[in-house]
Amino acid sequence: MLLLWKQMFLLSFVGCLGDLDNSKIKMRSTVSVREGQGVVLLCGPPTHSGEVSYAWIFNEYPSFVQEDNRRFVSQETGHLYIAKVEPSDVGNYTCVVTNTPTNTKVLGSPTPLVLRTDGVMGEYEPKIEVQFPETVPSAKGSTVRLECFALGNPVPRINWRRTDGTPFPSKIILKKFNGMIEIPNFQQEDAGLYECITENSRGKNVARGRLTYYAKPHWVQLIKDFEAAVEDNLYWECRASGKPKPSYRWLRNGEPLTLEGRIQIENGALIITNLNLSDSGIYQCIAENKHGTIYSSADLRVVASAPDFSKSPMKKLIQLLMGSTAHFECKPRASPKATITWKKGGFGMFDDSYSPWRTL
């Protein structure tokens, strides 16, 4: 029954695999090393798309390689690293690739590892085989993982630090016996130069890489539907933040807005002087940097109408006490803005004929 279960397990690895291509199950070339020497076993993952994870079977299922300070499986390359080979490491190694979204798996070809008979490897300083790039662009809010592992005899110790001396915040996690550092919710203050220090009694080696911060654009201020009168001036602002700083462009009715004397863009704001009816339309403000593009849409309605007192009529009668102050309001709705004059008994009054208020 156990044998049948093992066969079913292996068939599930090499059956229908979605985005992972099937690997031909055949033995790879034997890898021969001295006891005490370090070794790298290559996974050679099949063509795939989407996120994958890696593990290694030792000899046969269910015996998986257990990672420790001497053995490391890179989730970047899939390779297995053994810092210092011991007699117990002799056997067959098979890389297992798992398509994370679908949990489908595929087996690589087994790689035999044997010990040479021409002596034992002496002690040597750490040789870093797994290191992160010199520059690692990291998105705001993402989880950043850096790997570092060295071969060496004795087995090297691994430590991490920031070169500016800034202590690690509590959110940073060291995993895989210090072979991986994980930075969740990456923020601008997490950017900087990081060092992985590997050392043993024979020496020390260091790997360095800079984490750079970037952020896709996101809106700080959206545009909203707006109504304006002909001959008015428009200042329509949209603002976005991002790293690097976003640039802006505008569309009207789906077409790029042509900039001219009375139509300009300043720091993302659309400025139109002396509006006319043809300026009406659906506008889009577009903010973008090399990491993303966002859109904000709104309707601009330019109107023209004769003065209308229907919504704000003047009172026909105001009763006042002798010697008190009278306030009269004249606020017609009009596009463009109406010129206001005041009369008393049919005769003009006041030099300032544009004020909507009168005080007597």
Automatic annotation (TrEMBL):
Residues 1-18 form the signal peptide. It is found in: Cell membrane. One of its GO terms (cellular component) is plasma membrane. Residues 23-108, 126-212, 217-301, 307-360 form the Ig-like domain. Belongs to the immunoglobulin superfamily. Contactin family. It comes from Phrynocephalus forsythii. Pfam families: I-set (PF07679), Ig_3 (PF13927). InterPro entries: Ig-like_dom, Ig-like_dom_sf, Ig-like_fold, Ig_I-set, Ig_sub, Ig_sub2. SUPFAM superfamilies: Immunoglobulin. This is Ig-like domain-containing protein. Interacts with PTPRG. GO terms for molecular function: cell-cell adhesion mediator activity. GO terms for biological process: axon guidance; brain development. Keywords: Cell adhesion, Cell membrane, Disulfide bond, Glycoprotein, Immunoglobulin domain, Lipoprotein, Membrane, Repeat, Signal.
